[in-house]
Specification:
CATH superfamily of the largest domain: D-Amino Acid Oxidase, subunit A, domain 2
Bound molecules: flavin-adenine dinucleotide
Strand content: 25-35%
CATH class of the largest domain: Alpha Beta
Number of helices: 11
Number of strands: 20
Distance between the termini: 35 Å
Oligomer: single chain
Helix content: 25-40%
Shape: globular
Radius of gyration: 21 Å
Length: 376
């Protein structure tokens, strides 16, 4: 006998975008089924720093979306009883041109909606015991950044969804959508709407849309230390001069081009591999250090020792941790659009594709999901 499987809405993809869409849809009282092709989601969402990082977003719409997303994150984390570190962030600076950008950002930032503040060297050291003191000039303090453990989130957020009645279908790839019918694994579902959050899978569903979209991939290498001894705490998540040239928020600074030019001249290897050093800590005390950026549809499956060494070299210019013993190395891949902050499309009535928030998918996920439902 064929069972009648029905839901108001199907979400395709168990990464953070899929989970956030399922969370918002179920909050709105819709019956939801979530499909993830793997027994557990192993895409970008489990491989990242877990930084919810509004300060990286460009002023205006995207920064506002990130702030909204951060509030939704906190609500979801509390509901799921998931720990997070609301430590804020510090961008620490050691060179005059870095300090020029940091100071300028702290001057113009508040008018642009950022709650940030320039800290003197002494004030940085009061906020963080993890920062190298030699040649330290100061830093940007921002209280709004959070760190979650992506491995816990991807494992446990689905449990909250299940408690709310979301049907979870892990190990079930969606092969075709022809509304109201969805073919997934060995099942056929009837749904009113579908949201496709398939990460960097450009082939299975709507390959023509993806082919014309301009989307590409980005590979990032990452490292994680052993748990730091004695319950040592990182405090604020850390970034430094290289990051000022990376996040679009800082492009509002007239002093940035000089810094970009100096980095390109002095350390072209960092530009070559898109390296900037970011540091966060998990609730278990491990320190996550990354990352690099290699763009292109065909991802090199082999990691480069040179890149890991450069990431560690750059992190060591500002980071002072008790143990540098590396416990894990991995890479992650996300989809990204060259010009847009994310990609969305409505290939047929009732179906929306929402993907490619690039390096900001954790930050933006819940805000993007809420936005999707405000538009449908
Ligand atoms: C190393 C690294 C560090 C990062 N750090 C941060 C950070 O600190 N802060 C931040 O904001 N962002 C960060 N990002 C970016 C962020 O991780 C991504 O933007 C985000 O995870 C993308 O989520 P997603 O759900 O779109 O994709 P994914 O997590 O890749 O999930 C897509 C899922 O869809 C499934 N799927 C695909 N097709 C089908 C199908 N047909 N049927 C069923 N399932 C399907 C896949 O199996 C996959 O699990 C980082 C990314 C990486 C790689």
């Amino acid at each position: 006998m064929k069972v009648n499987l029905r839901a108001d809405i199907a979400i395709i993809g168990g990464g953070i975008l899929g989970l956030a869409h399922a969370y918002i849809a179920s909050r709105e009282g819709r019956s939801v089924v979530l499909f993830e092709r793997n027994p557990r989601a192993t895409g970008a969402s489990i491989r990242n720093f877990g930084m919810i990082w509004p300060i990286g977003q460009p002023a205006g719409e995207m920064h506002q979306l990130a702030l909204k997303s951060q509030k939704l994150w906190i609500a979801a984390l509390n509901e799921a009883r998931l720990p997070y570190l609301a430590t804020g962030s510090l961008h620490v600076v050691y060179r005059d041109d870095e300090a020029d950008v940091a100071r300028e950002f702290c001057e113009i930032g508040p008018q642009l909606g950022y709650s940030c503040e320039w800290l003197s060297r002494e004030d940085v050291l009061r906020r963080s015991a993890a920062v190298r003191t030699e040649n330290l000039l100061g830093g940007i303090w921002s209280s709004g950044e959070l760190t979650v453990d992506p491995r816990q989130v991807v494992a446990r957020l689905p449990m909250l969804l299940q408690e709310r009645g979301v049907a979870l279908r892990y190990g079930s790839a969606v092969r075709s959508i022809d509304l109201p019918t969805i073919e997934a694994g060995s099942e056929t579902w009837q749904v009113d709407d579908a949201i496709v959050c398939s990460g960097d899978d450009f082939q299975t569903l709507y390959p023509k849309v993806f082919e014309l979209s301009g989307l590409t991939r980005c590979k990032l290498q990452m490292l994680r230390t052993v748990p730091q001894p004695g319950g040592w705490q990182l405090g604020p998540a850390l970034a430094a001069g290289l990051t000022l040239r990376f996040y679009k928020a800082f492009r509002a600074c007239s002093t940035l081009p000089k810094l970009v030019e100096r980095i390109a001249r002095e350390t072209p290897e960092c530009d070559r591999w898109g390296i900037h050093a970011l540091v966060s800590q998990t609730a278990a005390g491990e320190v996550t250090i990354g990352d690099s950026h290699e763009y292109g549809k065909c991802v090199d499956i082999f990691d480069k020792t040179e890149i890991d060494d450069l990431i560690l070299r750059e992190a060591a210019t500002f980071l002072n941790i008790p143990s540098w013993q590396i416990a894990q190395r991995w890479h992650g891949v996300y989809s990204i659009h060259p010009d847009r902050a994310f990609f969305e499309a409505a290939p047929v009535p009732g179906v929306r594709i929402v993907t490619a928030p690039g390096g900001s998918g954790m930050t933006l996920s819940f805000g993007l999901a809420e936005r999707t439902f405000q538009r449908t």
